[in-house]
Amino acid sequence: MAIGFMFLNKKTIEQLALRFKAIGQKTVQIIPGLKYDLRNAHIEMDAETYAVGAFFSALIIGVFAFGFLLIISQIRGFEFPKNIALGLVGLIACTLAFFALNLYYPKITSRTVAAKIDRGLIFASRDMLIQISSGIPLYQAIENIAEGDYGQVSVEFKEVAAKTRTGKSLLEALEEMAIKNQSKYLKKMCWQLVTAIRSGTNLTTTLKGIIKMLVDDQLKQIKAYNAELNFIVLIYLLAAAVLPTVGSTVLVIFSVFGVLGITPEVYLTLIVISLIVQAIIIGYVYVRRPKMYG
What we know:
Blueprint: H1 10-19, H2 21-30, H3 34-40, H4 47-75, H5 82-133, H6 138-147, H7 152-165, H8 170-180, H9 184-199, H10 203-256, H11 264-288
Helix pairs in contact: 1-2, 1-4, 2-4, 3-5, 4-5, 5-6, 5-10, 6-7, 7-8, 8-9, 9-10, 10-11
């Protein structure tokens, strides 16, 4: 699996980590949560090794930026030391930017994993409810879901089943999943199952409560999105209709007073700005849309 902008293989990164251990240690001191982000993102690499790999991968991009800017400066006729200074600025800026991006990548990935879990959890919970209502033990129900087609939920449950098969108790495996997982709903589900098992509560009742909680949350997300969508549509209409027409009118009025002349370039700029704003709004709507399935 590709990891962010990592251009080095795992073996090379581990070798570099042995030689430049100080870089990894210093980075982990500054960002102590990196090891938890790596664990939640299912990236099998310790934090110090990952930090060293992130730095040298970013440095590779910085070196390419240095060479590119050096060539551009030569074409533009920049003389020494301006050409070197421009290249060094690009080297430092790109290295720092991509180093920060690589360090932030595990957090982004862990949030993506949590979102995938939330989307599939309601279906997995209903399946578990049906199985337990039919008299199937909880462990067997977890194994069935692990072998089922519930996306990231099946992946998480496979870990629980694997830990239980190796001798760990089911309660301990569920507690570990609750602690390490980024999905708040899977956390709640695990803790409620653990509490129900320890207190002897009926698991069917517990699962019904979990499913109701998930369904209610989905309805809240949809209502919140509908309320937000009304405002977004208003902004879109302003960008798509009002901005070009009112902008053209204002330009015509200004041209009468000789403040600003109307040229094809001005009109083209106005249209391009309107299209860019529309594209940004459409992208925002797509990102904010509640993803209930998949």
